Amino acid sequence: MSAPIMDGHDTVTGHIISTTIRGKNGEPKQTVSYMAERVVGTGSFGIVFQAKCLEIGETVAIKKVLQDRRYKNREL
């Protein structure tokens, strides 16, 4: 697959979103990739994408939280 990786820093559909998750019970960390398929919602806090996990084919929703510079240290 040759789609560009966006690492959660873009809002364009059709791109790959990658994240690293911690392993369970001493297992090593692993990278999981998702293909952003479409925007399903937007609001004052962010954008929600419908995406498909490239490893197992599961459809998921991913929320990209928009950060306001004024609230850089704010907890989510």
UniProtKB/TrEMBL annotation:
Keywords: ATP-binding, Kinase, Nucleotide-binding, Serine/threonine-protein kinase, Transferase
KW Kinase (keyword) present: yes
InterPro entries, per database record: GSK-3, Kinase-like_dom_sf, Prot_kinase_dom, Protein_kinase_ATP_BS
Keyword Repressor applies: no
SUPFAM superfamilies in alphabetical order: Protein kinase-like (PK-like)
Gene Ontology terms for molecular function: ATP binding; protein serine/threonine kinase activity
Amino acids binding ATP: 64
A GO BP annotation: brassinosteroid mediated signaling pathway
Highest taxon above the source species: Eukaryota
Name used for this protein in its record: DH200=94 genomic scaffold, scaffold_1204
